[in-house]
DNA sequence: CACCCGTGGGT
DNA sequence: TACCCAAGGGT
């Protein structure tokens, strides 16, 4: 088929050189695939290289502890990925003698690995003829067939297209080439159609719709929460941090305690109330340290941070897993979300 | 199946 | 600024 041949030829000359290309270690390829979920290549590369140096094989990962794994993932986001990578390493060690399985039915059952990631791993590591449908492929195919619906409404159809196009003789290079095409030529905005090997096959281009496709879903505005945050010092000059529950947002990461500012409540009142409710201690809320705006996928937050002083009571882990007093020197050993890293940075700059 | 889950970069 | 969205999966 001309589509296959032209893509493979293009990939041979114009494909990207990436650290997880031209290797055959399914573990390393698996790690790359997980890190690349919803995350750009440029962001992933340094994490990938550090990760393989720290956890060179499945056994090393499986026998580490979760906090060490989360620390290595710190800043990458979607922390369930790290938890599932760790969990799956233990499953592979126990059920598959530490050898990454080659059967699709087994691979898709592993935590954190869905159909696209499984196809990515098996086609890349073992050259198995299994198709993929990631963000790049959805965009490329939506333009190729001039899809009139948003891709989310046509997932089954797009899988069928991806299946029918896949080159059974060169599945590895075909899948990788398809993703490279989406990443470098068939980009979201200003696609470089004149450089595209599929120019003459692309229905969107023929209809002059390449800048309008793929169609978008209409989205509702994100809710905005204001959070009061406490950096609490004790008489020894230590700082109180807590570890979040394993499930949910930023699961298992450490943070400075705080909570949502209610209506008709000042920031100071909120912080004092939240700390009493969550940690059962009485504090004195002092000067403002920093205010941070942060956008997550489904809401926005403003963190208003105050320096506080412990007055009375023994801290209790009521709405978290664990509480510790620590110091600015030791705090780097705990995994924190990015928003909290900026608070730590502000504390350092605030030091006398 | 609609919603949840981080962070950084582009427009 | 505000919004979109990246090598998606879990629930």
Automatic annotation (TrEMBL):
InterPro entries: A/G_AdeGlyc_MutY, DNA_glycosylase, Endonuclease-III-like_CS2, HhH-GPD_domain, HhH_base_excis_C, MIG/MutY, Mutator_MutT, MutY_C. Its EC number is 3.2.2.31. Residues 222-351 form the Nudix hydrolase domain. It catalyses: Hydrolyzes free adenine bases from 7,8-dihydro-8-oxoguanine:adenine mismatched double-stranded DNA, leaving an apurinic site. Keywords: 4Fe-4S, DNA damage, DNA repair, Glycosidase, Hydrolase, Iron, Iron-sulfur, Magnesium, Metal-binding. It is an enzyme of class 3 (hydrolase). The keyword Lipid biosynthesis does not apply. Mg(2+) binds at residues 258, 278. Pfam families: HhH-GPD, NUDIX_4. GO terms for molecular function: 4 iron, 4 sulfur cluster binding; 8-oxo-7,8-dihydroguanine DNA N-glycosylase activity; 8-oxo-7,8-dihydroguanosine triphosphate pyrophosphatase activity; adenine/guanine mispair binding; metal ion binding; oxidized purine DNA binding; purine-specific mismatch base pair DNA N-glycosylase activity. 8-oxo-dGTP binds at residues 244, 255-258, 340. GO terms for biological process: base-excision repair; mismatch repair. Its cofactor is [4Fe-4S] cluster; Mg(2+). Belongs to the Nth/MutY family. Adenine glycosylase active on G-A mispairs. MutY also corrects error-prone DNA synthesis past GO lesions which are due to the oxidatively damaged form of guanine: 7,8-dihydro-8-oxoguanine (8-oxo-dGTP). This is Adenine DNA glycosylase.
């Amino acid at each position: 088929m001309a589509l296959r041949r032209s893509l493979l030829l293009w990939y041979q000359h114009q494909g990207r050189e990436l650290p997880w290309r031209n290797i055959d270690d399914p573990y390393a390829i698996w790690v790359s695939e997980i890190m690349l979920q919803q995350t750009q290549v440029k962001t992933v590369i340094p994490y990938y290289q550090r990760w393989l140096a720290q956890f060179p094989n499945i056994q090393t990962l499986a026998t580490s502890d979760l906090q060490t794994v989360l620390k290595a993932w710190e800043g990458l986001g979607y922390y369930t990925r790290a938890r599932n990578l760790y969990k799956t390493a233990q499953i592979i060690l126990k059920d598959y003698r530490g050898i990454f399985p080659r059967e699709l039915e087994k691979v898709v059952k592993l935590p954190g690995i869905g159909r696209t990631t499984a196809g990515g791993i098996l086609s890349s590591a073992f050259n198995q003829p299994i198709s993929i449908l990631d963000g790049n492929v959805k965009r490329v195919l939506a333009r190729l067939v001039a899809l009139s619906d948003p891709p989310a409404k046509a997932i089954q159809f797009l899988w069928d297209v991806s299946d029918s196009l896949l080159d059974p003789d060169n599945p590895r290079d075909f899948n990788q080439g398809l993703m490279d095409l989406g990443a470098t030529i068939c980009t979201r905005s200003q696609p470089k159609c004149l450089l595209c090997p599929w120019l003459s096959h692309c229905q969107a281009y023929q209809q002059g719709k390449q800048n309008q496709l793929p169609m978008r879903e209409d989205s509702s505005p994100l809710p905005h929460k204001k959070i009061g945050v406490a950096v609490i010092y004790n008489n020894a000059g230590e700082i109180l941090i807590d570890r979040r529950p394993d499930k949910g947002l930023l699961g298992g990461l450490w943070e400075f305690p705080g909570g949502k500012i209610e209506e008709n409540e000042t920031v100071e009142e909120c912080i004092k109330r939240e700390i009493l409710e969550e940690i059962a201690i009485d504090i004195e809320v002092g000067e403002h340290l920093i205010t941070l705006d942060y956008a997550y996928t489904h809401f926005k937050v403003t963190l208003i941070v105050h320096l506080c002083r412990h007055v009375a009571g023994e801290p209790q882990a009521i709405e978290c897993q664990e509480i510790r007093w620590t110091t600015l020197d030791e705090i780097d050993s705990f995994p924190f979300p990015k928003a909290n890293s900026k608070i730590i940075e502000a504390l350092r700059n605030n030091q006398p």
